Amino acid sequence: MSVPISYANSVKNELARVVSSKSCCQTAELASLMRMGGNMVIGGNRNLGINFTTENAAVARKVLVVMKQRFQLQTQVVVTRSRRLKKNNSYLVKVIPTSEVTELLTQLGLMREGEIYSGQDKAFFRKACCRKAYLRGAFLGGGSVNRPEGDYHLELVSSSEEYGKTLVGLMKYFNFPARMTDRKADYIVYLKDGDAIEAFLRLIGASESVKLFKNVRRVKEMRNRVNRLVNCETANLQKTVDASFRQVENIKLIAKAQGLASLPGTLREAAEVRLNYPEATLQELVEKLGGTVGKSGMNHRLRKLEQIAQALTGGK
Q: Which residues of the chain have pLDDT under 70?
């Protein structure tokens, strides 16, 4: 199963193409995006602007289009090309400071009565569709998910503890087993259950990514089941080999100490067939004796031979 090099970027590319037809959902998604990757800047006449940073080109394009087309704001894009190996380019969407930006920030819940507001965005949670859009924005702005071949792990990274708590509460509203932890200066909201991750991606609109996740997961789980069966068979085979070796040694000890002729007929018969077929299973030994004894009967006879051997060695 072929999976993109960065599964998380593949998910974001798909989500960046999801455009809600409802203005309330567009606003909720943009608000969450700004909470994740946006910063306010002060320009001339103390007007506010916005700098939004992301490493995903599709996400930057989505923010740019929404700012220009829906809110008619002046924007610029700055691309910083990383010179470090395996580091992604960084895309900076700059919204030029104007009086209209303050109106937008108020609409997005980032400002209240002219002051910066960092509390919960409850205004966006009245409708289920807006809650989903808000979570989509959170993933686009600061989310990542492991390749499905590896350990199941999805996380949303924010520098705000309050925002992290908001995300946990919102995810629990949809019955996701979300947890939060801190990592240096960041707060991590995460999922580690495969079913929950699959359902979360479906909820926020990544249907194609979910198909890939399910297919890879199915192959992975089938492979794990096969490995468990092989390991179980290997363990059982090892037990059979160890038991057979121990039984043969016991019979040789009895033969040397007192001779097999001293044994009762049924035990002598079991001893001889085991010596003749040291690698045979219990079932195969039963078949060698023509079915005159069952597996449990054969096992009982071999245990009796072991007890006799232990008695001869003083229980050692």
A: 1-5, 82-87, 117-119, 315-316
Cα–Cα distance for residue pair 78/60, rounded to 1 Å: 10
Alpha-carbon distances of 222 from 197, 227, 228, 239, rounded to whole Å: 19, 9, 10, 26
In terms of Cα–Cα distance, which of 82, 207, 185, 67 is closest to 132? 207
pTM for the predicted model, two decimal places: 0.70
Name the architecture of domain 7-205: Roll (3.10)
Domain residue limits, the chain = 7-205, 222-312
Q: What is the mean pLDDT of the chain?
A: 86
Read off the pLDDT of residues 157-209 as tens digits, 9 standing for 90 and up.
998 898 999 999 999 999 999 999 998 889 999 999 999 999 999 999 999 99
